[in-house]
Amino acid sequence: MDDAANLIGQDVVLTHVKDIDTNANVVTPGQGTNDNCGIEQFMRQIALITYLVREYAEATVWFQNALGFKLFEDTDMGDGKRWVVIGPDTNSGARFLLAKTSSQEQSAFIDKAAGGRVAFFLHTSDFHGEHKSMLKAGVKFLEAPRQEPYGTVAVFEDLYGNRWDLIQPKT
Question: To which H or E segment does residue 110 belong?
Fold first, then answer.
């Protein structure tokens, strides 16, 4: 019987590691190369992030009214499904693909985008103006604005209770 088969069902402790370069594939911020992994680099960006919703209309209205997002696409896919893309009115950054839940299992995750942690980070060039506008629109902030090494920030909740950071990055 081979050694691996003898280990099934047993606790295994790694006691010796050799010939591993612990600095391999370490990328310093701003470097962004993947020389050691053999992946050819192409121009890529994260375009869409799935965002679970109860109903397309309630989510679309909330994002437009509370955050000033733009509806980029709303295509009927049949069988009650739609391809709904919404996001900030900019030419950069990811957008949300709104996905209506189709089961109780999926619905259980609507308010758990990051397990209770901040899931989304919304950058702005005018924190105080944006904060004031969002408060006026009824957005629930969980804290007062604060200064961090990376900028001005405050945590808020979306219509489902997912947490977001509103951030004005330091320049």
Answer: none
pTM: 0.75
CATH number for the domain running over 46-110: 3.10.180.10
Is residue 25 pLDDT above 80, yes or no?
no
Choose among 56, 93, 47: nearest CA to 75. Answer: 56
Query: For 102-113, what is each residue's pLDDT tens digit?
Result: 999 999 999 999
Tokens 């189709």 correspond to 102
The answer to whether the 46-110 and 112-171 domains have the same CATH topology is yes
Q: What would the pLDDT profile of 134-166 be if each residue is shown by its tens digit?
A: 999 999 999 999 999 999 999 999 999 999 999
% of the chain surpassing 90 pLDDT = 70
Q: Which fold has domain 112-171?
A: 2,3-Dihydroxybiphenyl 1,2-Dioxygenase; domain 1 (3.10.180)
Cβ neighbours of 6 (radius 10 Å): 9
Which residue type, as a one-letter code, is found at position 49? I
Q: Where are the domains of the chain?
A: 46-110, 112-171
Between β-strands 95-100 and 48-53, what pairing exists: parallel, antiparallel or unpaired?
A: parallel
Residue 98 phi, psi (nearest 5): -70, 130
